[in-house]
Design a protein that fits this description.
20 helices, three-stranded antiparallel sheet, 3 strands, 507 residues, mainly alpha, single chain
C-alpha cells in the first residue's frame, strides 16, 4: 500500500468517526447517564462551585474547556437547558468529547503501524476501532472514560515513535517524544487511576525485553537471517511477498527494541514526568475546593471507591465483573425512553411511558460491536497460545531450558497480549461495583489483535485464508450497521429493539 492511499484511508476513517459522533449530537436535550455528574462538574469549574468527585480532575477540565468554547457558539443556543447549572445547549457540554473521541481510531492505527511498519495493519486496526459501539457512545456525551484511552494511547504511540527514530545524531528529537509521552501518561492517570495500566504495559514490556537481552547475547547474524526468512515465508498464513516488502523485511518492531530505554529514561520520562503532570493537573481543583489538600483528597477518593459496595445487582443493576466484559454479557443502557409514535416529541423530561405502552423506543446502549469484541477475544487467545508455544516448545523439544529466538511478529503479538492483560487483570481483585466501560482501556488491544490476524489472512496466497479475512471484516462491518441505531439513540420500533437484544442480560 502506497503512502498516499494510507493517508487517504486515515482521513476517511477520521471523517467517518467525526460523522458518527457529531450527527444528532444534541438529540437528547437532557443529561444522559453520568452527564448528571461530569457535565455539572465541568460547569462548576467555570462558575466557581466547589465539589467532590471520586476521580482526578483532568476529564472534567477538558469538558469545562468545551463548555466555555461552546457557550460562545451562537447557533448552538436554539435548544438549551439549565441541568448542568447554567443555561446552555447540550452541544456545549458534548462537542469536545465528540471531537477528541474521533481521534481514537487514528491513535490505534498509528500504534499498529509503528509496531509493524505495515500500513494495511494500521488501516484495518483504525477502521475496526471506528466501527465499535461503546467508543461512539462514550464520545457522544459528556463522559470521561475516553480520556483515559486517548491519553494512554497517545503516550504509547509517542513512545513507539521515539523508539523508531533511527537517527542517533538527533537525540533531542527522541527525548522530546519521550517527554510528551510522559505528559500524556500523566494526563491519563489524572482522568482515572486505571490510566496507570498503560504505563504498566510499557514497564512490563521493558522488563521482558531486558530479560531476553540478558538471557541471550545481542542479535547475531544468523538470528537476523532467521528473522528475515520468517518475514519472507509467513508460513502460518501463507503471506504473499512483494519486492517492496523484501526491502522492509529487516525492519524491527520497537516492542523488541524497547531496551533502547535505560533506567534513567524510564525513571525520568516514564516516572517523574507523569507524576509531575498528574500533580499539576490537580491545581485548579484544589484552588476551587479548599476543603481537602492534595493528600487528603486522595484519601477521600480511595474511601469513596471502598464504599461503593460489592460487584452485584443489589448495588447497581448494571454491575458487571471483569470476566463478563470480553464476552460482553452485560452491556449498559445509558438512556431509554419510549413514545407512542415517531412523530411524538423526544421524551427527555418526565417519567417514561408504562411498560408495553410505548411503540417507539429511544435507546442509547453502551455496548461494543459484538462481532468485533468476540473476534478480538479469539485473536487474543490465539496470540497468547502462539506466544506460549513459541516460549515453551523449544524447552520441551530439547528437554532443557531454552531461551528461544523471538521473531518480530512474536514481539508484536507479545506487545498486544501484554497490554491487553495488564489492562484487564488488575480488575480481578477489585470488589467494588464495576461496569463494562472499565474494559475500554484494554479492548483496544483486542481490536489491534484481530486486525493483525485479518491483515495476515488477507496477505495470504491461500484463497481460503483470504476469504476468512474478508468474511471477518464484513461481519464486523455488518454488525456495526445492524447495532448502529442503539449507539446513536435513533428511534426504532419495539420489534427492532428486541431483534438487537440477543440475550436477556443485554437489556
Amino acid at each position: 500500500m502506497s503512502k498516499k492511499w494510507f493517508q487517504i484511508g486515515l482521513v476517511s476513517i477520521l471523517i467517518l468517526s467525526l460523522a458518527l459522533r457529531f450527527w444528532g449530537l444534541g438529540r437528547f436535550n437532557t443529561l444522559v447517564f453520568d452527564e448528571v455528574y461530569y457535565a455539572k462538574f465541568g460547569n462548576n469549574y467555570l462558575t466557581g462551585v466547589p465539589f467532590f468527585d471520586g476521580h482526578p480532575p483532568f476529564g472534567k477540565l477538558v469538558i469545562a474547556l468545551g463548555i466555555w468554547i461552546g457557550k460562545h457558539v451562537p447557533w448552538w443556543q436554539s435548544e438549551v437547558n439549565g441541568l448542568a447549572g447554567s443555561l446552555m445547549s447540550p452541544l456545549a457540554y458534548r462537542w469536545m468529547n465528540a471531537f477528541t473521541g474521533s481521534f481514537i481510531p487514528l491513535l490505534v492505527a498509528g500504534i499498529a503501524y509503528q509496531l509493524s511498519h505495515h500500513r494495511s495493519f494500521g488501516l484495518i486496526a483504525g477502521l475496526f476501532t471506528a466501527l465499535d459501539g461503546i467508543f461512539i457512545v462514550e464520545a457522544r456525551y459528556a463522559l470521561i472514560n475516553q480520556y483515559i484511552v486517548i491519553c494512554g494511547l497517545l503516550g504509547q504511540f509517542l513512545l513507539l515513535l521515539a523508539l523508531n527514530k533511527k537517527n542517533t545524531r538527533r537525540p533531542p528529537e527522541r527525548l522530546l517524544y519521550l517527554a510528551v509521552a510522559g505528559i500524556a501518561f500523566g494526563a491519563s492517570i489524572a482522568t482515572k487511576w486505571n490510566g496507570l495500566w498503560y504505563l504498566l504495559g510499557v514497564y512490563t514490556m521493558w522488563v521482558i525485553a531486558w530479560g531476553f537481552q540478558i538471557l541471550r547475547s545481542k542479535t547475531s547474524e544468523s538470528e537476523i537471517t532467521e528473522q528475515y526468512e520468517e518475514k519472507l515465508s509467513h508460513e502460518a498464513f501463507g503471506s504473499q511477498v512483494t519486492t517492496k516488502y523484501r526491502v522492509k523485511a529487516l525492519q524491527i518492531s520497537p516492542s523488541q527494541t524497547i531496551t533502547q530505554l535505560n533506567i534513567s529514561h524510564v525513571a525520568v520520562y516514564l516516572g517523574i514526568i507523569p507524576v509531575i503532570v498528574y500533580s499539576i493537573i490537580w491545581i485548579p481543583h484544589l484552588l476551587l475546593d479548599t476543603k481537602y489538600n492534595f493528600i487528603e483528597v486522595h484519601k477521600q477518593i480511595f474511601g469513596f471507591h471502598e464504599r461503593m459496595g460489592g460487584n452485584n445487582t443489589n448495588v447497581h443493576p448494571y454491575c458487571a465483573a471483569w470476566y463478563k466484559w470480553p464476552l460482553m454479557t452485560r452491556p449498559m443502557a445509558y438512556y431509554y425512553q419510549t413514545t407512542q409514535s415517531f412523530q411524538d416529541p423526544l421524551p427527555v423530561f418526565g417519567p417514561p411511558l408504562p411498560q408495553g405502552a410505548g411503540k417507539v423506543i429511544y435507546d442509547v446502549h453502551a455496548m461494543g460491536n459484538p462481532f468485533l469484541w468476540w473476534f478480538g477475544l479469539a485473536a487474543i487467545i490465539l496470540l497468547f497460545g502462539m506466544l506460549v508455544w513459541k516460549l515453551v516448545a523449544p524447552s520441551l523439544q530439547q528437554k532443557r531450558l531454552v531461551v528461544p529466538q523471538l521473531t518480530t511478529n512474536t514481539w508484536i503479538a507479545m506487545y498486544l497480549v501484554v497490554n491487553y492483560l495488564v489492562n484487564l487483570m488488575p480488575w480481578v481483585k477489585v470488589t467494588r461495583c464495576l461496569f463494562i466501560y472499565h474494559y475500554m482501556t484494554g479492548v483496544v488491544f483486542a481490536f489491534m489483535s484481530i486486525a493483525w490476524v485479518v491483515d495476515q489472512l488477507l496477505r495470504s496466497y491461500i484463497a481460503t485464508l483470504r476469504a476468512v479475512g474478508v468474511t471477518i471484516t464484513f461481519l464486523i462491518i455488518g454488525a456495526f450497521i445492524f447495532w448502529l441505531p442503539i449507539y446513536l439513540g435513533l428511534p426504532i420500533t419495539s420489534e427492532a429493539y428486541k431483534l438487537r437484544m440477543w440475550f436477556n442480560s443485554w437489556i
